[in-house]
C-alpha cells in the first residue's frame, strides 16, 4: 500500500524536531535522517553544528509515526526485514517536500544528512526519477521532484552499501555535492567496497569528498552495541568537518 507525498508528510511532520533561531527569516536547512536504531544522542549535536554554521536543522523520525520503538527497529529494520532503503526513500522525499514549504526555510539551499540506514535511503532516492506511481513507496512521487531540485548537498555517514542498495548498480539522476564518511573498521562494509560505490557515484557526475574515519560503524554515536565503539575525539572531528562542509556550500 502506498500513500501520497502529502499523506506521508502529514504522518512525519508531528515528530519533526526543529533547531535554529526562533524567527521567520528564510535560512538554508539541513534535514537529518537517523540510522536503523532510531533517534540517538549524536543527531542533535550535528543539528547544533548546522545551526552554528547559519543553517536551520530538522531531525526526522521515521519510527514514531509508525509506532515503532528501538527494540522493534533493531530486530526488524536493522536486520533488513522491514523498511529497506527504497521504501524509506519516500520519507526522505516527503520530508524535503514538506520542509521546503516552510516560510522560514530557503528551499533553494537544502542539505540531507543521513547515518547508515538514513544514508542508504537518501542514496537510493538519488537513483529515482520519481516519474511513476509506486517509486519510493509513494503514490505520486513526482510531487516531490521539484522540491528535490533544492538539495545542494548530502552528508553520507557510513551508509549501508551492501546487497539491496540501489547505488551499487543504478546511476544517480541528481548530483548534489556529497561528503562521504567511511568508517575504517566498519563491520558492514570494507573500505574498498565503500570506495567502489562512492567512486561510481562520482563517475555519474556527483562531486564526492571522501573522509575515511579511523573508527567503527557508528563511531559518533554513544553506544557499545556489538562491534560498534564510540570515539569522542573522532566525533568532534566529524562535527567540525560537517560544519566546514556546510560552510562551503
Provide a compact summary of the structure.
With 249 residues, the protein is of the alpha/beta class. The chain has helices spanning 5-12, 42-52, 70-76, 85-100, 117-126, 142-148, 191-203, 232-248; strands spanning 17-19, 27-33, 56-60, 105-115, 151-157, 177-183, 208-213.
Description:
The chain is of the alpha/beta class and 249 residues long. The protein has helices at residues 5-12, 42-52, 70-76, 85-100, 117-126, 142-148, 191-203, 232-248; strands at residues 17-19, 27-33, 56-60, 105-115, 151-157, 177-183, 208-213. Helix 2 (42-52) links the parallel strand 2 (27-33) and strand 3 (56-60). Helix 1 packs across helix 4 (85-100), helix 2 (42-52) runs parallel beside helix 8 (232-248) and helix 4 (85-100) crosses helix 5 (117-126).
Using brief descriptors, characterize the structure shown.
8 helices; alpha/beta; 249 residues; seven-stranded mixed β-sheet
